[in-house]
Amino acid sequence: MTTTTSVMRAEIGEQPAALRDTLDALLPLAPEIEALGRETRQVLFIARGSSDNAAVYGSYLLQAHSGRLATLASPSIATTYGARIDLSGVLAVAISQSGRTEEIVDTMAWAADCGARTVGVTNGDGSPLAEAADLALVTRAGNEVAVPATKTYTTQLAALAVLALGLGAGLDHGELAAVPDAIDDALDRPADALDAIVERLVGVEGAVVSGRGMAFSTALEAALKLKEACYLHAMGLSYADLLHGPIAVVDSATPAILIAANSGPTLPGTVALAERVVSAGAPAYGIGGGSALAGACDLAVPAPDVPEWLAPISLIVPAQLITERLARSLGYNPDAPRGLGKVTQTG
C-alpha cells in the first residue's frame, strides 16, 4: 500500500466540518421548505452523476418518511424532446454540485415553466441554479479540488435530509445533527479492514456493488467512484435487481461489495445475499450492516451506528476511502481521473 497522500483523502477528512456548516446553514430554512410543501404534493428530482445518486436517496427518504411520491426526472424530456408536462402541484428539486451544469439548470427552468415550484441544491452560492430556484439550499462544502465528489456529495445528502424534515418527515433533528461526530469517529478508526479489502481488490477487473432501500443510493455512488478513480468495471445494483439475473456475474474473480445500514428492514435481505454470494464461492465484502453483515462476509468495514434514514451519509465514507486507497495502490491519481472534469456539460 502506497503512503502517498492525495487531495481526495484530505477532502474526505473535511466532511464532518462541511456537514456541520451545511446543517447550520440549512436547518433554519425549514419554514421556507414547509411553505413550498404546502403548495405541492409530490417531488421530482433533477440531477446527473453523483447528484443523481443523491436524488435516489432523497426519493427513498421522502417516500418512506414524508408520505410524498418522489420520482427521478429524465432531463432529456425537457432538453432534447421539448415535451410539455403538467407539473402543477410538483416540487422540482434540482441537484448540481457546481450549480452550473446547463442541462440541470435548463430542466429546472422547464419544470417551473410547466407549473412546478423549484428548489436548487448546490454547493455553488450565486450559481445559475441557486439564482433561478424558488429556494436555494446551498451546501457549505467549500472548494472541492479532487474530481471525484466526496464532501460535495455528503453535504447534498444532508441537504436532502433537511428537505425531508421540512416536508413533514417525522424524524429526529437531533439524530441528523449527530451524524458529523459519528463520521469523525469513524475516520479516526484503524484502517486495517479497509486495507485488507483494498489488497483483495487489486487485480480484479470488475465488482458488483449492491444495497437496498436507503443504501441503494450508496451502492450506486460507491460503484461510480470505483469506475471514476480506479477504472474498475463496477456495477451498482439493488439487492432485488441483482437477484433477478445479474448475480451470475459474481464469481471468484468478481467480488460483491454489499452495503447496509446497521439496522432497518433491508438488513436481513442483505445478509442473506452475502451468504448466497459466499456459498457460490465468490468473495463478499461488507460496508456497514453491523455484526450481522460482517459475520456473513469475508471482510467487512464497520460504519457509524446512525439510524437507517441517515445511514447513506456515513456509509459512503468507507467506500470513498476504499476508492482512494485502491486508486493509489493501482498507481492512479485519484484527484484527477482521466477524461473527467468538475463540471460536466451534456447536450
Characterization of this structure:
This is SIS domain-containing protein. Keywords: Hydrolase, Repeat. It is an enzyme of class 3 (hydrolase). GO terms for molecular function: hydrolase activity. By secondary structure, the chain is α/β, with parallel strands linked by helices. It has helices spanning 7-13, 15-26, 30-39, 49-65, 75-79, 102-113, 128-132, 151-166, 173-177, 179-187, 192-201, 216-230, 239-243, 267-279, 290-296, 311-329, and strands at residues 42-46, 70-72, 90-96, 117-122, 135-138, 206-211, 233-238, 256-260, 284-288, 299-301. The protein has a five-stranded parallel sheet with strand order 2-1-3-4-5, with helices on both faces. Helix 12 (216-230) links the parallel strand 6 (206-211) and strand 7. It starts with 6 loop residues before the first helix and ends in an 18-residue tail after the last helix. The relative contact order is 0.15. The model has no long low-confidence stretch (mean pLDDT 94).
List the helices and strands and how they pair.
Blueprint: H1 7-13, H2 15-26, H3 30-39, E1 42-46, H4 49-65, E2 70-72, H5 75-79, E3 90-96, H6 102-113, E4 117-122, H7 128-132, E5 135-138, H8 151-166, H9 173-177, H10 179-187, H11 192-201, E6 206-211, H12 216-230, E7 233-238, H13 239-243, E8 256-260, H14 267-279, E9 284-288, H15 290-296, E10 299-301, H16 311-329
Parallel strand pairs: 1-2, 1-3, 3-4, 4-5, 6-7, 6-8, 8-9, 9-10
Helix pairs in contact: 2-8, 2-10, 3-8, 4-8, 4-12, 8-16, 11-16, 12-16
